[in-house]
Specification:
Motif (RadA KNRFG motif): 253-257
GO biological process, one term: recombinational repair
Binding site for ATP: 96-103
Helix content: 10-25%
Domain RecA family profile: 67-216
Keywords: ATP-binding, DNA damage, DNA repair, DNA-binding, Hydrolase, Metal-binding, Nucleotide-binding, Stress response, Zinc, Zinc-finger
Strand content: 15-25%
Radius of gyration: 28 Å
């Protein structure tokens, strides 16, 4: 009697992006639809036996936390986004478009950390050591406690870490580092995953704060496997227009703080400087009041920022007039034009409408709806809006005004800057139009868009406006609007 041989286990294939498994190889993942992410992981294993532990489990109250308290990075805006500063043993991934200033920011962070007495290691895989030194000379980042190495091999990087023993490690960038014992070229899915995992292990075991630069694809997402964002503790996005010196840092993921904070930086040839008060950056300087402008207070993260919206309305002979925006959502601006036409009887069907923000800021907060509509109505009627009156509120399709979050914080910011009035949506169940004083400033609550336009004398009906445009020499100079 012959015994039948046991069948050999079939190989398994797994997606490196989402973990989906299949019995055979496929060019495209059946779960997340990613191309080229399905790789062979070997035969499925059986039960895993218990093994030795690295450290015994202890009650959570007995775990020491003194070594993991955040310490300042020397840059207040970065500390704000991180939730207090750099945490020892934390792995941070910084991503952004090419040329946005990632290397300049991290070199400044490394220099500030070295000045505080903590040893720092900066590993550059994209530039030579002399090129980084030239940039450090230009930005004033040369310090004895700042060590520099130009390496692209993971084993050499780990050797530098063992030799220098830094408290802060900067890797620029993770896509340029390769492991010799892993298949594929540096920057590939397998290579990036292995390199990032090795650096995170070193950061956790040796309690080293690690910052890695990550490249982005053409659609703005972080290059490499999605698991890269899961491995690290913090994911930061560095944004900015090439035509503007303003840069913004946002947290996409943060295990040690909030993810709705934003940091502002000024990038110049001398380096990068944190902008602790962004007031005035997004407001134009007018020598005299100009029609088609209105100021709003939007939230960037948790920070209220003053933003000016400008609009231009011109007659058009085209069959389809243009609706062009810069810094604003184009579809939302078109919706506001339709609401002005339908609810406020402001005919713009034969006019081109252009709307833009000042300073290159991109507004995603719906609280700027009212300021945008007021600016368009002001440009259509060619009547100036007072530069010391702000408009805050979201507009619905019925023309009603909706309140937005953190309204007291926005009003307090307008009062701090010396505004004499602010237009806000009416509280639920309130009077049709009410006026109250807050810190010497008039807060006008209106129910809908047409009532807000009457306050500025921009409505079709003849009314007495609450706010009139002051003379140019009386316009509040605190924001440089004269």
């Amino acid at each position: 009697m012959t015994s039948r041989a046991k069948p050999r286990p079939r190989p398994a294939y797994r997606c490196t992006e989402c973990g989906w498994e299949a019995a055979k190889w496929m060019g495209r993942c059946g779960e997340c639809q990613a191309w080229g992410s399905v790789v062979e992981v070997g035969a499925p294993t059986g039960r895993t036996a218990a093994g030795p532990v690295t450290s015994p489990a202890v009650p959570i109250g007995d775990v020491p936390v003194e070594d993991s308290r955040a310490r300042t990075s020397g840059i207040p805006e970065l500390d704000r986004v991180l939730g207090g500063g750099m945490v020892p043993g934390a792995a941070v991934l910084l991503a952004g478009e090419p040329g946005v200033g990632k290397s300049t920011l991290l070199l400044e962070v490394a220099a500030q950390t070295a000045r505080s007495g903590l040893r720092t290691l900066y590993v550059s895989g994209e530039e030579s050591a002399s090129q980084v030194r030239l940039r450090a000379d230009r930005t004033g980042g040369v310090h004895p406690e700042l060590y520099l190495a130009a390496e692209t091999d993971l084993a050499a990087v780990l050797g530098h870490i063992e030799q220098v023993r830094p408290q802060l490690l900067v890797i620029d960038s993770v896509q340029t580092i390769g492991a010799a014992d892993v298949d594929g070229a540096p920057g590939g899915v397998t290579q990036v995953k292995e390199v990032a995992a090795a650096l995170v292990r070193v950061a956790k075991t040796q309690n080293i704060a690690t910052v890695m630069v990550g490249h982005v694809t053409k659609d703005g997402t972080i290059a490499g496997p999605r698991v890269l964002e899961h491995l690290v503790d913090v994911v930061l996005q560095f944004e900015g227009e090439r035509s503007s010196r303003l840069r913004m840092l946002r947290a996409v993921k943060n295990r040690f703080g909030p993810v709705d904070e934003v940091g502002c930086f000024d990038l110049s040839s001398e380096g990068i400087v944190a902008v602790t008060d962004a007031t005035g950056l997004f407001v134009a300087r007018h020598h005299q009041p100009v029609a088609g402008t209105c100021i709003s207070v939007v939230l960037e993260g948790r920070r209220p920022i003053l933003v000016e919206v400008q609009a231009l309305v011109s007659p058009s002979s085209a069959e389809r007039p243009r609706r062009t925006t810069s810094g604003l959502d184009g579809s939302r601006a078109a919706m506001l034009v339709a609401v002005l036409h339908q609810r406020c009887r402001i005919s713009l069907a034969s006019h081109d409408v252009f709307a833009s923000t000042v300073g290159g800021v991109r507004i995603q907060d719906t609280s700027a709806d009212l300021a945008t509509a007021v600016a368009v109505a002001s440009a259509w009627k060619n009547r100036e809006v007072p530069t010391d009156v702000a408009a805050i509120g979201e507009i619905g399709l019925a023309g009603e005004l909706r309140r937005v979050r953190d309204m007291p914080q926005r009003i307090a910011e307008a009062a701090r800057l010396g505004f004499r009035g602010v237009i806000v949506p009416m509280e639920a169940g309130g009077a049709p139009t009410s006026v109250r004083d807050v810190d010497g400033m008039k807060v006008v609550e209106v129910p809908d868009l047409e009532a807000a336009l009457r306050v500025f004398d921009l409505a079709r009906t003849d009314t007495t406006p609450l706010f009139r445009t002051r003379e140019p020499h009386l316009v509040r100079p605190a924001l440089g609007l004269v």
